């Protein structure tokens, strides 16, 4: 596009300060946000409303959904809704914790590597290359297998696996910004490191970080449930989405709601997380 | 083949961007549209081609060899692209597909491409050979120099044998030699009976092409006629102003014949400096002294290492051998004695931050006197309201003046201006350099001007360092004014 053209168009647009790129499908984002709010509500409020996720009533095994028990009961007569609420809380809490941890660790490492460069960059990068060469889930799987279903180890494994992603993205983006003429000019003006972080790096990184965080929550939720599903994650009788799917699979023809409920929560959570991402703004 | 445009009007959001009564393009006579950025000259050409972006209201009629076309129906001319109408784009390196080899890019446009790829490739090679770039056939676009890329783009644009060629700012970013080359190519097209419409703000290109010239401003054609008449004895005052904006015709208070006063302190001493970059020897054994108030132009063709030399002298780029010493150019609070202006000012400001915040940090860091920023804004005739915007929301000329303000806030001793106006049109260039040189004169700053425009270098600098650019010539030539 010729500058002539863009200049002419820019000149005719209203006040540039308030100018934003039109959001992609605002309605889709609203729906996604609403779905996410519902899932979070289920996680926050649900466990208090429907208690006793491990409470067994064998006489009521595989009871179909009713008004009192909207999702029925599983093969051990436990309330599926209660288990679902507790499992969702567990998944989201672990995901949030992992994302915050990995963002801090990976993000800081990324900025430090890009800022200092030289051997520091080489060293941190080498560690990340090793970790990235191994599939992330395998890292978590190894950790989980060693620790035999400990929640703490699962959290550490997921956080480490995700830190690599944060590190790589933040480092790549920061390196471009830090080597650019804008930061060069700031250095010639003898401006502080705080100025570079606050005015140059952070505004450039912020949209990427939000996107990464949304993806990170999704990956954590998936990782936890995948491990539960294949039987190396948390141990029964913990209410966990992956475990719930595994446990109810044998009864899928008699009581399909048992399988569908956790699958639905997973699908809605992940789609909503993808949907709420804002498009990255351009200068 | 003749092309006539009648009453072409382009509007956007209630503003008229183009309103041109008629343009006649005839074989064998070049037509060139000149004017400043935003005058609508590019839009006119794209309206004729049918390549305007959506969202613009377009009206008008055109006839191509007597066949009528509705200019408003932009898609209507699509079947003519490449066969009848062809576009030579600006910045050819960006226009060529970076993932394809040169001969394949060119072959895609050949009329036989759909039926016989072999023949298309042969035609592409022939055309490249005819333009003297046969050796580049196997290269990728990023491996080409600016001048070579321009020839390749020319080959790609003309392989379809389209009689009507539209060139949109074709000389942008080219040095003098490459521009003369380009003018020769375009003239060859005209002499071969082709129709040529060129859009440019480069009056030298217009002169080299000959034929007719149209001067546009604010959507309208102000003056038209044979080049030699319009560009020597203009009748419209705006054309006269445009001509006076050419550096060769400047008469400014800050222009001078001598150098800085005798005995000015030495700032930079470069001794036997040598630098090789990417296997190319840029300069060898170069000696250069810069004193306070010096004005030195670093010139040479693109890729000759002008910018590298500038950054070497600032000690912001390593040398292979030799030494660059600075005298009293250390930074501390209240003093940032070495500054740089970039070719693209948008890249020298933080992109997502309002300009006031970006400039404010420098003001606070160095305790700049309150009111100094406003005073400089006033001197450069800039609206303080611009500071509330982000760099992307300010025009190139205004942003470059803001960059000048930022650089000159702290009374720097040495300023490297790296092609500060090469992306600006003539009038904006004059305004920007006037603002810059006013400050340089007032503050006694030493200036290193990197430019490929020799007339600009003559107008601004006391002396020039000419980098030859060729691989063979080993030493830089020091040329007097």
TrEMBL record, chain A:
It is a multi-pass membrane protein. SUPFAM superfamilies: MetI-like. It comes from Cellulomonas phragmiteti. The keyword Transport applies. Residues 88-277 form the ABC transmembrane type-1 domain. InterPro entries: BP-dependent_transpt_permease, MetI-like, MetI-like_sf. It comes from the Bacteria. Residues 1-16 have a biased composition (Low complexity). It is found in: Cell membrane. This is ABC transporter permease.
Automatic annotation (TrEMBL), chain B:
The keyword Transport applies. It holds the Pfam family ABC_tran. InterPro entries: AAA+_ATPase (IPR003593), ABC_Ni/Peptide_Import (IPR050388), ABC_transporter-like_ATP-bd (IPR003439), ABC_transporter-like_CS (IPR017871), P-loop_NTPase (IPR027417). It comes from the Bacteria. Its main location: membrane. It is a peripheral membrane protein. Residues 3-243, 268-479 form the ABC transporter domain. GO terms for molecular function: ATP binding. Keywords: ATP-binding, Cell membrane, Membrane, Nucleotide-binding, Transport. It is found in: Cell membrane. Belongs to the ABC transporter superfamily. This is ABC transporter ATP-binding protein. It comes from Cellulomonas phragmiteti. The lineage of its organism: Bacteria, Bacillati, Actinomycetota, Actinomycetes, Micrococcales.
